[in-house]
Amino acid sequence: MSPALIGLLTLAVSFPILQPPPASSNPVAKRPYETASAKPLDAKVEIASEADNHTQFRVEFNGIKGDRVPAFLYVPKRKANTPLPAILLQYGSGGNKKSDYIVQIGKQFVSRGFIVLTIDSPNCGERRDKDRNVSPLGLLGAAQVMHNCGDYSRAIDYLCSRNDIDSERIGYVGVSWGAITGITYCAYDARIKVVGSMVGGGNFVGLWSPKLADKIAKEGSKSSDPVYHVARIAPRPLMFLNVTKDQLILKSWAESLHKAAGENAKVVWLDTDHYFRGLDRAMICESVIDFMELHLVKAKK
Question: In the chain, is it the N or the C terminus that has fewer CB atoms within a 10 Å radius of its CB?
Answer without folding.
Answer: C
